[in-house]
Amino acid sequence: MLTPIIFIIFQLQHGVHPITFKLVMAAKYPWSISSPSFLYFCHYTMEVIALSNAIIVTCGLDTYFMLCILQISWKFRAMSHRFYNMKDGDDYNATVQDCLKDYKKLLKCRDNIEKIFGPLTLWLLISSAVVLCSNMFQISKVMFMTKCFGYLILMMFLHFLCY
Hints:
mainly alpha
């Protein structure tokens, strides 16, 4: 997100004229945004906000989803622990009733998680695949080859496999 600003500062320090203004994401628009105008700053701000939101939502959603699933699995483990460690003097019926109440709550939680995170997870999976494929296409159109290019392709491929 800071790359365009660093690129502009680098051009100013080295006396490059005319200064080219890059955006955060490589995109083409039907109008010119290469000059330091209000339109350039609007595009830059919009792309920074969109990219920041994408990063925050993706990381936060994945983390929260896993936290909910782990909490449900921990509750199941606690319920099984209660059954395995019952003593002779414990009230079996009260323990079963408590566990059944908890089980009903967990089923409601499961239904809510499925209703909320099902479409979001599917949307993130599809959009991540599209973004990754478009990035691979853009990288394949780069004219120069460096030592890091093969490493970058390998890392993106491994990320795709692990995601």
